[in-house]
Amino acid sequence: MEEAPLYVKILAYLFVVIYMVSVTLESTEGEIKTMLKDRRRMGLALLANFVIVPVLAFVLVRLLPLRPDIRIGIMMLAVSPGGLFALQFARVSKGDRVFAVALLIVLALLAIFITPLLAHLFFPREEEGGLFLWLVLLFLLLVAVPLYAGRALQKRFPESAPKLGRWLGLLSIVIFIVTAMMSGRFKNPAIRALGADGIMAIVVLTLVCWAVGWFLGGPEIRNRKVLAISTAMRNFGICLPLAVHYFPGTEVLSPVLAFSGISIPMNMVFALVTARTLRDPADGAKPVEAKSAS
Fold first, then answer.
1. Helix, strand or coil, per DSSP, at residue 225
2. pTM of the entire predicted model
3. pLDDT tens per residue, range 26-52
4. Is 65 exposed, middle or buried (0-12, 13-18, 19+ CB in 10 A)?
5. What does the alpha-carbon distance between residue 30 and residue 104 come to, in Å, rounded to a whole number?
6. What distance in Å separates the CA atoms of residue 274 and residue 269, rounded to the nearest whole number?
7. Is the pLDDT of residue 244 over 80?
8. CATH T-level topology, domain 6-277
């Protein structure tokens, strides 16, 4: 498969950095800490994303007649949660914003270490011993550093931070759209390269993630929406550089590129439909965007 040019990669990395800065600008430290202390909710989210989904994905790729590289790519997505558009789709679905922010931070930070580590353990590359550490450093620069920068700005400018976060979030979407248009000639062949079974695997994986997240999301519908969407949005931002640098010249990149072209529209439809049809009884009196006490 033809590799995306450098300018497309730079735009993709720029999208990740700007988006991660916007995430921590929109919520206060007190809100996030309060949510993180909810051990049951966060524990179920971790169970869904790091145990149940990978196990079910493994069963799925074994049942379907997929080529080995396609299987690796789908499994890499399955063990890499924290998809960056989860927060935007959670907002569209009228889910709990603070839960979505806290979950995105936790899943993205854990995926920085877990996804490359699993790739290193299952597919060791002795000829490039420093590649694993280099990838972890890259992910830290793309995710952890922007999150910290956003938190520092939020503390320094608490009144204007939420508005700045929303503007940066919109800017990141614009960059993503431009990147998607420029990479279209790489993404469409990737979808075709999967074949019917590969496309089915991504669609079924997304459906399974929705079901797992909804089932473990608790009694409140706004939390079920967030966990369903956050579980279905696997971390394209981590899988892309991992596939490019760790599996060069293989078909592993195909399902990663195809996933963004298939799962993102599916989650947008899911968010729009659930926003119109499913709400908690108290939502009319308690806005989702209301801030909890810090």
1. helix
2. 0.80
3. 777 777 788 888 889 999 999 999 999
4. exposed
5. 16
6. 9
7. no
8. Na+/H+ antiporter like fold (1.20.1530)
